[in-house]
Amino acid sequence: MTRGTEIANKVAAFVRETVAPYERDPRCSAHGPSDELVHELRGLARTAGVLTPHILADGSHLTHRETAQVLRAAGLSPLGPLAVNVMAPDEGNMYLLGKAASPEQKARFLDPLVSGEARSAFFMTEPATDGGAGSDPSMMLTTAVQDGNHWVVNGRKAFITGADGARVGIVMAKAEEGATMFLVDLPDPAIRIERVLDTIDSSMPGGHAVVQITDLRVPADQMLGNPGEGFKLAQIRLAPARLTHCMRWLGSCQRAHEIATDYANRRHAFGKPLIDHEGVGFMLAENLIDLKQAELMIDWCADVLDTGALGTVESSMAKVAVSEALMRIADRCVQVMGGTGVTGDTIVEQVFREVRAFRIYDGPTEVHKWSLAKKVKRDWRDSQRPQES
User: Where is the Acyl-CoA dehydrogenase/oxidase C-terminal domain (predicted)?
Assistant: First the structure.
């Protein structure tokens, strides 16, 4: 048994046996599970030896392929990634800090995340009403101006997952040198949550906030990397993060498929089990195909990342293929279960909502296709150039 499989099996057992019973806990709200519930679940994970399982005791990470196994197991419940501390945005922020932070920054900002004692937020997206950065980060309006040994940041951010209750913030702003990232302690009076948006998903603590940043003073030694490196650092974070989203939601859709399959075998109509009706049985068969294709796409992209390549093209391809496949799976599960599928009696309804949001988060399908189309054009142009003899 490989290291990844062994850890994944342990995580899967913990999520199925210990975490799943909490899915109807009243501390799960429209804006995500409460911090009290997260703290309780992480305590259980710590006792079970599965807290932050993708980062080893020596600080090294599992390979991306091994991480895929573990995060898929964590995703078997919407609460699983939170319980074992592999949920977005924390998982992606831990990865970025592990790659780019100084030793002093890691001790101050990364260690509390790895231990599961703190949550984090990534401040990049800006309100569309302001004309700020969304899918096009070059439109960033938030500014950073140097003032002696500090930087002063001003602007507004939107869809900031987990800002309410986070202790660690990564803020991107536009300096004279270009986009730049800063590490900040939260809460900070200069960062004010205007409102937490009402969205269709509900799995992330703190929800998604609109935030006003007014004269935030950040010491120069809390800059991540160098001035103007913000976009480069964002790609270090976002390429793997797109894939880890796929990993987690693949696990959730696997569980939804299990629930729908159980329902179709137990529920009878017109003289036989639902699964014996082709209309139902074929939907579940199509789920199997999409589940396997999503798994293979994730593993392929993980292998590319494990070679040390940045993998932006591959992660875009995986994000499109997997998110669209998972949407089909979740939709079929709801359809198989009929009225029960649109109730909160099972997690199928929530998985459907979460995956619908996932098709937009970390880049909508259409933006990734547009990026891939530009690559197709570049490759064609390169193929037309005369070859050197």
Answer: 228-375
